[in-house]
Specification:
Layout lengths: L7 H20 L12 E3 L2 H9 L6 E2 L2 H8 L8 E2 L8 H6 L4 E5 H4 L3 H9 L4 E4 L12 H16 L3 H24 L6 E10 L2 E7 L4 H8 L3 E2 L15 E4 L12 E4 L6 H8 L2 H4 L2 H4 L3 E3 L10 H16 L5
Parallel strand pairs: 1-2, 1-4, 2-3, 4-5, 6-8, 6-10, 10-11
Antiparallel strand pairs: 6-7, 7-9
Length: about 325
């Protein structure tokens, strides 16, 4: 029997692919070994939040204006802005002389062997993975990864003891929120959590699916995530939400809760829709089960944002807030 062999060009291609894959795997790693980092540059909002929770002020961070608008967790005013999250200034980062850079594999996908290598030429790099492989099928994977990234950050900056305290506080927050819902006999209620997406010229809604961090927070406080795919192909995504227009809201029943959060810059867009008769006729609105969460309830952050979200969701279903 003749065993098929690959041509030299195919073998060379396979070798290059193998080396590249190995390099990417090496770059997307856990906390760098060595002394605790003191001068940290955070290229993702969740990294800024995590460092703040640990009592560490980063020397630089990406898109601080966006952080203040969407995340809203208190931060130091002494942080230098290094540009956008998608394209931070390499020179600004170098000028800060960091001993650690924190980024995400999401921001570097497709450029891992270039962009991450450039960061590594400046300082050790900690790569967070907020949307890990397998997240489409796992209900709690994004939550577990959030905790894992937080622990890795705590280790990298020598704040593991403080990190444990923060995580313990998060557990207590879940228990407290769940207890309050139980007292009002609201455990097991079904909710749909939504935020704006798109842009002013092409607005959309982000409706969180079962695999999202938002849905896991819902479950942690004793509720159930109710968003289901309204049509074929609109189920879980790697990011944990489906995009839809206002017409998607007709799928929320009068027995469920519609919880909506939007930052101030989306107010005019949302108010225009809420004044339309179509909104008033939605089953969930007619049943008076529509609630606004605080505009800076962030469902893509770390423990601090997660604790705030748990409180907001619990309070909204337990006693409601003004429409």
């Amino acid at each position: 029997m003749t065993i098929p062999t690959r041509s030299p060009s195919v073998r060379r291609s396979a070798l290059v692919s193998s080396v590249t894959a190995g390099l990417v795997t090496a770059l997307v790693a856990t906390a760098p070994a060595g002394a605790a980092a003191k001068r940290v540059v955070a290229l993702e909002w969740s990294a800024v939040e995590n460092l703040t929770a640990l009592g560490v002020t980063p020397v630089g961070a990406a898109d601080l204006r966006g952080y203040d608008a969407y995340v809203g967790q208190k931060r130091s005013s002494k942080i230098t802005d290094v540009g956008t999250r998608t394209l931070p200034s390499e020179q600004r980062i170098r000028d800060l002389e960091p001993d650690l850079i924190i980024t995400t594999d999401q921001r570097s996908s497709g450029q891992a062997t270039g962009e991450l290598a450039r960061y590594r030429s400046i300082a050790p790099v900690l790569v967070m993975k907020p949307y890990p492989a397998g997240t489409k099928s796992s209900k709690s994977l994004q939550y577990r990864q959030m905790v894992k990234d937080f622990k890795a950050t705590a280790k990298a900056v020598g704040k593991e003891s403080q990190g444990k305290k923060v995580l313990s506080r998060m557990t207590r927050t879940f228990k407290s929120a769940k207890k309050k819902l139980k007292q009002r006999k609201r455990l097991g209620e079904r909710v749909v959590v939504t935020t704006p997406g798109g842009d002013p010229s092409n607005p959309a809604l982000r409706l969180f699916t079962d695999n999202s961090l938002a849905a896991e927070i819902v479950r942690k406080v004793g509720l159930k995530n109710a968003w289901r795919k309204p049509k074929k192909g609109a189920g879980n995504t790697v990011y944990g939400f489906t995009d839809g227009g206002p017409e998607s809201l007709v799928n929320i029943t009068k027995r469920e809760w519609f919880l909506f959060t939007y930052p101030e810059q989306h107010r005019k867009q949302i108010q225009r829709y809420r004044t339309q008769s179509a909104f008033a006729k939605l089953p969930v609105v007619r049943a008076r089960r529509y609630r606004n969460l605080d505009g800076q309830t962030w469902f893509f952050g770390g423990p601090l944002s997660t604790m705030k979200a748990a409180k907001e969701i619990s309070n909204a279903v337990r006693r409601g807030v003004a429409l």
